From TrEMBL:
Ligand binding (substrate): 110, 148, 316
E.C. number: 3.2.1.23
Sequence ranges assigned to domain Glycoside hydrolase family 42 N-terminal in this UniProt record: 13-386
Organism: Lactobacillus crispatus
Domain of life: Bacteria
Signal peptide: none
Residue sites binding Zn(2+) per the record: 114, 154, 156, 159
Major enzyme class: hydrolase
Gene3D superfamilies for this protein: 3.40.50.880, Glycosidases, Golgi alpha-mannosidase II
Residue ranges constituting the Beta-galactosidase trimerisation domain according to the UniProt record: 398-602
Membership in a protein family: Belongs to the glycosyl hydrolase 42 family.
Name of the protein this chain belongs to: Beta-galactosidase
């Protein structure tokens, strides 16, 4: 049985090997002062642990493990395999990744291993074996943290060979492969497996990596293969750990906005608990991190770990303003509001050298605790100490789901033509925002999730519809589920070949329409949609729609297709399906969703319009926890509904005036 977290972790990445041992006890004292109860260690220590091949030295690690254990810290133990020591590159050059430009990397950086290098795999699993054997029985280790932020594709000879095997296994015959990739175009027919080469910039790709492909079927398969190759590394490390320590949960930290190269939905089943590193940029609207947290929670439909976040500035974004007073706690608690069961930072102690020396920390360069940031960290520590055990393990229930799918992410952004502005995440966010602003709990699910638990499933830009998916959607709507899809949907199959007979291909039935052409909206030109007698701006593309069984909800207001359908609604069995033929502006989409939310009978947690973020988690004993967040620099008022509630962060009655970045977690 895999264990679960026994307390709400408050901590983060600590790199004691960057400091002398004498400083460690003082560091731990300071962490305790801020009510930290956890540290993540050994993330990048490979060069210290294995100074020469096969020679291991765990003495430093033993010492810090002992000191943290004596201080009653929970330890998140890294496997240290993300940054390779210099000797390894010298001895085994094939461990280094070959990039999209065809260049072999040399020693330096991190996260630059070739996932199909047998040498890397061997050295990696040997180190992990030694670590697992050594620490398996340590009760203070509560989570194993494999590698770090997997990502980055390799285009080397090892990968090419492994890719050919992967394809042979997938397609069985060259005939099937040529057909899937439609290789009669540009004389691409393959007559032998070893004629297949990796789709890098020198071959069948152009433009920046993963943004343009000549044979999209090939490039998408390569992304699938690379994601799987890295996943196999994770699985290899996990299997080694489990052999010695079957009960402690194993995770690797997911990251980015979200990471395009890794299909996290495919990876999720191998994670004992999902963990996520969150670094929203200063100009990211609050619904963006909220969306990412909902995506992380929905991967396993379980609480996740907020594995990393910044106490204030980061060093790597173009601009990194200070987090405003109160903003740090609000951004951490936002993750908790959406399902995080930990609050962890990068970094616990600010480095003096290296590229992250200007990344914020619990112990800053001043090494003082009488600072604004430290006071705020201490305040948050006290609140989590107060409320953490109530929050831990509580669940989120959503009646709305938005589909996010990595194969769609890849294929949609590989589209050559129509418009250069096809951005998958942006299109999904337009729709997510509709629910965020209405305080409607929303899951962000994969095409393989069970739809029947939702009243409304929203699938914007569902460009790729793999075999069986349309049947699943049809059955869901027939049985009373409501469904929304949009422009650029139902266009290709899983190999990126177009469905003939009119767009949206296999979604024509459920939507009750067919699309003849799609116009691109060019810069400087305005196209309008008339919805409920009001004009709204249409962007990106405008589908020229023929309604069949669907009724028209909105029409284009100008252009040669003025007066034709822009948005339709179709009754299909017991349910309804809406088709949105253009990228409607926010006001227009809001008007449309006023209608859809009502028709689908979806309830908000509190009436919209208060400009607060409100979520709900339900504790194991059925208590409802309302997270009310003011994610802004302005003052707001608590909705009437919460009068008489109690704030579990402070053990005080709910207060009405919510200052900038104020958060309350309310129970009746
Ligand atoms: C990533 C890494 C950390 C650190 C932080 C800095 O998330 O996992 O090691 O570099 O970024 O923001
Ligand atoms: Zn490789």
């Amino acid at each position: 049985m895999t264990k679960t977290l026994s307390r709400f972790l408050y901590g983060g990445d600590y790199n004691p090997d960057q400091w002398t041992e004498e400083t460690w006890p003082e560091d731990i004292k300071v962490f305790k002062k801020a009510d930290l109860n956890s540290a993540t260690i050994n993330i990048f220590s490979w060069a210290v642990l294995e100074p020469r091949e096969g020679v291991y030295d765990f003495s430093k690690l033993d010492k810090i493990v002992q000191e943290l254990s004596d201080a009653n810290f929970d330890i998140v133990m890294g496997t240290a395999t993300a940054a390779m020591p210099a000797w390894m590159f010298k001895k085994y050059p094939d461990i280094a990744r070959v990039d999209y430009q065809g260049r072999r990397h040399v020693f330096g950086q991190r996260h630059n291993f070739c996932p199909n290098s047998k040498n890397y795999q061997r050295l990696d699993s040997e180190l992990v074996k030694k670590l697992a054997q050594h620490y398996a029985d340590n009760p203070h280790i509560v989570v194993w943290h494999v590698n770090n932020e997997y990502g980055g594709n390799c285009y080397c000879g090892n990968c090419q060979n492994a890719f050919r095997d992967w394809l042979r296994n997938k397609y069985k015959t060259l005939g099937a492969l040529n057909k899937a990739w439609n290789m009669n175009v540009w004389s691409h027919t393959i007559y032998d497996w070893d004629e297949i080469v990796v789709p890098n910039e020198l071959g069948d790709a152009w433009g920046p990596e993963s943004s343009e492909a000549i044979v999209a079927g090939l490039s998408i398969d390569y992304l699938r293969f690379q994601s799987e190759s890295l996943q196999n590394l994770f699985k290899m490390e996990k299997a080694v750990i489990k052999k010695y320590d079957p009960e402690t949960p194993v995770t690797t930290n997911f990251h980015s906005l979200p990471n395009k190269m890794i299909d996290y939905q495919k990876w999720a089943k191998d994670q004992d608990i999902i963990s996520y590193d969150s670094y929203p940029t200063y100009d990211a609207p609050a619904y963006k991190p909220a969306f990412l947290y909902d995506l992380m929670r929905s991967l396993k439909h379980q609480p996740f770990m907020l594995m990393e976040s910044a106490p204030s500035q980061v060093n790597w974004q173009s601009y990194s303003p200070l987090k405003r007073p109160g903003q740090m706690a609000a951004t951490e608690l936002q993750a908790v509001a959406h399902g995080a069961d930990t609050v962890q930072f990068f970094q616990l102690k600010q480095a003096v050298g290296g590229s992250e020396k200007f990344h914020s920390a619990i112990i800053a360069h001043s090494q003082r605790t009488d600072t604004r940031v430290f006071h705020e960290l201490t305040d948050l520590g006290q609140k989590l100490k107060q409320a953490g055990s109530t929050i831990l393990g509580s669940e989120t229930k959503a009646k709305v789901a938005i589909i996010f799918d990595w194969s769609n992410f890849w294929s949609y952004e590989y589209v050559d033509g129509i418009s250069q502005d096809l951005h998958y995440v942006d299109s999904i966010l337009d729709y997510y925002r509709q629910f965020y602003e209405r305080n409607i709990p929303t899951d962000v699910i994969s095409v393989d999730d069970d739809f029947s638990q939702y009243d409304l499933v929203v699938a914007p830009v569902l460009y790729m519809v793999k075999t069986g998916l349309a049947d699943k959607i049809n059955a869901y709507v027939k049985n009373g589920g409501d469904f929304v899809t949009s422009y650029m949907s139902g266009m290709v199959n899983e190999s990126d070949n177009v469905y003939l007979g009119g767009y949206p291909g296999p979604l024509k039935d459920v939507t009750g329409i067919w699309v003849e052409e799609s116009d691109a909206v060019v810069p400087g030109h305005k196209t309008y949609v008339s919805l409920k007698d009001q004009n709204y701006e249409a962007g990106l593309v405008c589908d020229l729609i023929h309604p069949e069984t669907a009724k028209v909800l909105a029409k284009y207001a100008n252009e040669f297709y003025q007066g034709t359908a822009a948005i339709t609604e179709n009754q299909y069995g017991q349910g309804k399906a809406w088709y949105v033929g253009t990228k409607l502006d926010h006001a227009g989409l809001t008007q449309l969703f006023n209608h859809i939310v009502l028709a689908a009978d979806i309830e908000s947690l509190v009436a919209a319009g208060n400009q607060l973020e409100v979520t709900k988690r339900i504790t194991k004993d059925g208590k409802e926890l309302y997270f009310v967040l003011n994610m802004s620099n302005d003052e707001r008022e608590l909705p009437e509904k919460f009068a008489g509630y109690q704030d579990i962060l402070t053990n005080q009655p709910a207060h009405k005036q919510m200052k900038a970045w104020d958060v309350q977690v309310l129970v009746k």
